[in-house]
Amino acid sequence: MADRPHLVVIGAGPAGLAAALTAARHGVRVTLVDAAAQAGGQFYRMPAAPLGTRRPRALHHKWRSWERLSGDLDRHLATGRVRHLADHHVWCVEREATEPGPAERKATGPGPVVRGERPRSPSRAGRSGVAGGPVGAFTVHALLGPRQERGVAIRADAVLLATGGYEKVLPFPGWTLPGVLSAGGAQAMLKGGLVLPGRRVVVAGTGPLLLPVATGLAAAGARVVALVESADPRALARAPGALAARPDKLAEGARYAARLLRHRVPFLVRHTVVEAHGGDRLDGVTVAALGPDGRVVPGGARRLDCDTLAVGHGLLPHTDLAGTLGCGLDGVAVRVDDEQRTDVPGVWAAGEATGVGGADLALAEGRIAGRSAAARLTGRAPEPRSRAAAACRARAALRAFAAGLDSVCAPPAGWAERVTDETVVCRCEEVTAGTVRAAVTDLGAGDLRTVKLLTRAGMGWCQGRMCEPAVAGLTGCPATTVRRPFARPVPLGVLAGREERDNGEDSAVRTDGRAASATAADTGTGTGTGTEADRCESSKDRRQADTDRQ
């Protein structure tokens, strides 16, 4: 097994699982690295084993897909074709070689094979901006343990990034009150911990994630006071082609609607939360109707009593590791070709990192990426298009559907105008909207980096992943993708080289980095939906603890 090419797949959600299993099935040795204790990602998040859940399928839909994936994973783990490294938090991927070594020469492949065309050479493909094949050795650096202070380095012939996405939450007055959390965070509490975030819950924002969150909470016993969606689902009719290509998605939406009806959950479309109320914690929200232009209709506001608000405004691709490697982006997503290859040789990407589109699209992209990586690494030409046609057709249809959905589920117009100057925008550094606005109007900032330098918004634990969309909306500065050297905080002991090379056999013993005394200044990334807000809160807690000690 050790003489087989080695592919490291980062992320064990739907895309990573599909890619790892496909690549292993086609003759590649795969190491599946993930920060969570169990495979599955946010979509297939499972309760911890000590909870002894008897019917975990009650928290999920598409359970049969999970059974097939987990069954295949168990079989590949048993044969040694796949190694699963849980609780490994990847902070950097280093490309060690720019010129191909002997193993890499064998694995170097031509560019995408298109019937009727001659395969491209790697050099030509590189100039065209599309990778020709794996030509480098990689080292994946990860942190281990509950305190993430021990380092490990994993060598690989190629890397596949399935790093998922993270949730976007836009601010409004009162959004920092205890009892307000992200929609993904509420779902994670329920799926992973079997915990309800509250008894009377309002689910609000925009995007398809709100439906499973609201139905899941209602089925688990919470009283969902309302599901507040700022978009108008009828606008999907503007994309009839995308809808016709994926009728199963329409049926899925209808099933969620039926569940909401069964639990008597009011569904308020073209409404938005404009303010959260409370003293020590949340006790209600004000929602307002939106007009055809997406702006609040005067006189259309009303109060809903609740103790919890689960709010989300969509997802953003997780591209930190791709940026570190120098992968190109299309907008905010990793750019890939028809085989899911990035424009860095030896690096593939699949799932939400290449564009948010849901679990089905992630599975399709993962299978395509795994098949391509296996072919390139074993020195074979990729499978004829006819054999991969089904996955490619599914990917195309799902991408079209996701694009249609994305065009509808946008935050309401004028949301930034309703954010008061006193509202905290950057929760890590406690920077208010007034300070952010003043950076532009009084100090002349013209881009997000200058706003960050002048206000500290985005300099905290999450490095702007939570607040950057809000700062962009408040200032009118275009959102930019920041290239960070590290994807999460790293102990200095690990940076100094005190980490153990993984030998591919055992991941339990690591070099101890406990002597580290600080974390890197440019830090932080999420590993899944709903984590960044928690980290912001943790950052505040640490500062408060420091103050108390003083």
Question: Unreliable runs, pLDDT <50, ≥5 residues?
Answer: 101-135, 505-550
β-strand number = 23
Structural domain count: 3
What is the CATH topology assignment of the largest domain? FAD/NAD(P)-binding domain
Biggest beta sheet summary: 5 strands, parallel
Outline the secondary-structure elements.
Layout: E1 6-10, H1 14-25, E2 29-33, H2 63-79, E3 82-85, E4 89-95, H3 102-107, H4 122-127, E5 138-144, E6 150-156, E7 158-161, E8 165-167, E9 180-182, H5 183-193, E10 200-205, H6 210-219, E11 223-229, H7 240-245, H8 247-262, E12 267-269, E13 271-278, E14 282-290, E15 296-305, E16 308-312, E17 315-317, H9 320-325, E18 329-330, E19 333-334, E20 347-349, H10 359-377, H11 389-408, E21 424-426, E22 431-432, H12 433-441, H13 448-455, H14 468-475, H15 492-495, E23 499-502, H16 532-549
Parallel strand pairs: 1-2, 1-7, 2-3, 6-23, 7-20, 9-16, 10-11, 10-16, 11-12
Antiparallel strand pairs: 4-5, 5-6, 8-17, 13-14, 14-15, 18-19, 21-22
Helix pairs in contact: 1-2, 1-10, 5-6, 6-8, 10-11, 12-13
Entry summary:
This protein is of the alpha/beta class.
Verbal overview:
A hairpin with a 2-residue loop joins strand 18 (329-330) and strand 19. Strands 3-2-1-7-20 form a five-stranded parallel β-sheet. It has 550 residues and is of the alpha/beta class. Residues 101-135 and 505-550 have low confidence and may be disordered. The protein is built from 16 helices and 23 strands. It folds into three domains: 6-98 and 135-165 and 316-383, FAD/NAD(P)-binding domain (3-Layer(bba) Sandwich), CATH 3.50.50; 171-312, FAD/NAD(P)-binding domain (3-Layer(bba) Sandwich), CATH 3.50.50; 419-481, BFD-like [2Fe-2S]-binding domain (Arc Repressor Mutant, subunit A). The termini are far apart. Helix 1 (14-25) crosses helix 2 (63-79), helix 1 packs parallel to helix 10 and helix 10 (359-377) packs antiparallel against helix 11. The protein has helices at residues 14-25, 63-79, 102-107, 122-127, 183-193, 210-219, 240-245, 247-262, 320-325, 359-377, 389-408, 433-441, 448-455, 468-475, 492-495, 532-549; strands at 6-10, 29-33, 82-85, 89-95, 138-144, 150-156, 158-161, 165-167, 180-182, 200-205, 223-229, 267-269, 271-278, 282-290, 296-305, 308-312, 315-317, 329-330, 333-334, 347-349, 424-426, 431-432, 499-502. The protein is 32% helix and 20% strand.
